Amino acid sequence: xxxxxxxxxxxxxxxxxxxxxxxxxxxxxxxxxSQPHVLSEILQAITDPVMCIxxxxxxxxxxxxxxxxxxxxxxxxxxxxxxxxxxxxKTISFIVKPVTPPVIPKPPEKTDPELTPPNREPMxxxxxxxxxxxDEYDDIILAYAGTxxxxxxxxxxxxxxxxxxxxxxxxxxxxxxxxxxxKTADVDSDGNMDIIITSFGRxxxxxxxxRATSQKKIYVLINDGTVFxxxxxxxxxxxxxxxxxxxxxxxxxxxxxxxxxxxLSPEESMLYTSKEGEFTGCKLETTVKPHPRVNQEMxxxxxxxxxxxxxxxxxxxxxxxxxxxxxxxxxxxxx
Length: 335
Description:
Layout: H1 2-16, H2 39-45, E1 50-56, E2 65-70, E3 75-84, E4 90-99, E5 123-130, E6 139-145, E7 152-157, E8 163-165, E9 179-185, E10 194-199, E11 202-206, E12 209-214, E13 218-223, E14 228-230, H3 232-236, H4 238-241, E15 247-251, E16 260-264, E17 270-275, E18 278-283, E19 297-300, E20 309-314, E21 317-320
Antiparallel strand pairs: 1-2, 2-3, 3-4, 5-6, 6-7, 7-8, 9-10, 10-13, 11-12, 13-14, 15-16, 16-17, 17-18, 19-20, 20-21
C-alpha cells in the first residue's frame, strides 16, 4: 500500500508540474539557461551548422552583441553583458536570447504526384543580416526552399530589441523552388538596400526524365523604400535572368560613383554598368574573387582588453580565432 502511495505521489507531481512522464526534458545548457556565459561556451554548445554571424546591437542598449543563424532555422541573439571575473576584473559574457523564426507554411499536396516531386517541409537555405529598411536596426533576411510562394522572409529589428516578420505586403511573389544565393546591396544606387537571389531553376519530373519548366535563375528585387519589386528583366534584360552564376556582386567597379553589378559564371563573367537607369553588360576584364556567402566572419572585443578577436565560421562552427587555430585552412566557396 505504501509503495502505491509513493507512486501516486510522484505521478501527481508530474501532472501538476505540466510534464508528462514520457516527455523528454531538454537538458540545461548555455543556450537555454538564461545565464551569462563566456562566448566560447556558447559557441561550443551550438550543434547545428552555423550559416551566418554578424556583430550588431541586438537589444539596442548601445553595446555590441552577436546574431547568428543556423541551418535548422534557429536564430540566436547573443546579448553582451559586462561582468567581473574571479580576480575582480571587468570581462564580457553573453546571454542567449532565441529569436522566433518566421512561420513558413508547407505547400499543399500535389495533385499529380506521379509527374512532380513530393512536397517537403520548407528548409532554410541561406540568410543575411543587414539594415534593409534604413532605420539603423539590423534586420535578418532568410531564404527557404520548398515554399508555396516567395522564399524570402524579412525579420525586421526594432527599437525594443525584438524582430518581427514584415514580409507580407512588401515582397513580391517569386516562383523559386530552391534558392542558391542571397545577398543585399544597393544595386540602383538610390540609398536603399535591394535583394539579390539566385536559383537553379524549377524542374518538373515526368515519365521521360527531368525537364526544367522555369529557366529564370536571377532575381533582383529593387527596394523603393517601402516595397520590393522584381525589376530584373527591366534593368538587365531577359538574358541576364537566365544565367547560371557562381556569384553576384554589386559595387562601384569602374570608379564612377555609381554601383555596377558583376556576375561570375562558369560560362562567361560579365560586368553590368548603369546608365540612365538601365544596365549594359560587357565581358569582365578584371579579376573578381567570388564571395557567394556573406556574414561569414566578424570581429569583437570579447575579453574587454581593448583588442578585437576575429570570429569566423569554419566547417559549420563559429570559432574564435586564436594563435592556436589561426592556421586552420578555410573551406573554399564551393564547399
